[in-house]
Here is the input.
Amino acid sequence: MTDEIVVVPGDGIGQEVVPAAREVLEAVGDFEFIEARAGDHVRESEGEALPEETFDLAASADATLFGAAGETAADVVIPLRRAVGSFVNVRPARAYPGVDALKPETDLVFLRENTEGVYGGHEHRLTEDVSTLTRVVTGSASRRLARFACEYAEEGDFEGFTVAHKANVMRETDGRFKEAVETVAEKRGVETEDALMDALAMHLCLHPEEYGVIVCPNLAGDVLSDLAAGLVGGLGLLPSANLGPDRGLFEPVHGTAPDIAGQGVANPSATILSAAMLLDSLGYTDEADAVNGAVEAVLAEGPRTPDLGGDASTDDVTAAVLSRLD
Ligand code: NAI
Ligand code: MG
Here is the structure.
């Protein structure tokens, strides 16, 4: 049966980079695409940023490709991740040959807890002066992430993984996270090292080559992966996959880039690489490899968008990727 892919461009450069990635998917496979709406512009016209129809489509399709949402990002992305049942956000950050990276030796993968932590939405304004946030960490979500991390490390031939945490301060919540992850890994015979996330941020800047797979609580994964984007040449290069047991949501790490939106110069690489992760999740591994290879070749030889020092347009880069897939 033809795989169904829901396509949600969202706002800003999402409208530019998602069609580019869709073209790439069309070039390598026979999929049924369903366009769906979400984001600031949808809230303006319909009153809510994520129409129920889009949520339902994401919840039932084989995969969803999403661009970005502006101010409404939290109202769109977090429910969409829930729609696909995602429990892990996979965020690779690697420096590509030919790209002027701060740390060309960077080749990292962040496995970010995707359901709880401080992104659970339990925020309250108690008085005029006091606001609170309740952080939820469960052993079950931490163990599920750990099982995924063990499989990821085994399949990818990694020696093990690093567990990022701040259990010296958040003893109960990060303490539980760290212990749950380490216990699963130990039982599976997968090596782990733990790292305090603040010190890890510094070490990643100085010696990214000493790290491979990094397992993180939700907020830490968000922050550390953006830091890694800085090491490899910018947000235009970082893809991500929100994986659930049966389906996934694939999206670039970047946002709507209002400073360049509408100019046709957004770097489509992050979204095309996200499409490659989508292909991989659906079992199209050869096609995923081909797309990754095509993006890598274009990054090495150009054309390049302005964020990478070039003067090419989104369309130029997309056409160059497509021509390498012929
Ligand atoms: P951003 O990722 O949109 O932009 C940060 C910087 O990176 C900007 O200078 C931008 O031009 C550049 N950049 C990002 N992607 C690029 C690409 N593909 N090609 C070339 N340059 C690129 O983050 P920012 O500025 O913090 O947020 C802008 C809006 O996006 C906000 O409204 C925010 O809420 C939203 N956002 C949405 C996300 C989502 O939907 N998943 C994630 C992050 C931010
Ligand atoms: Mg982020």
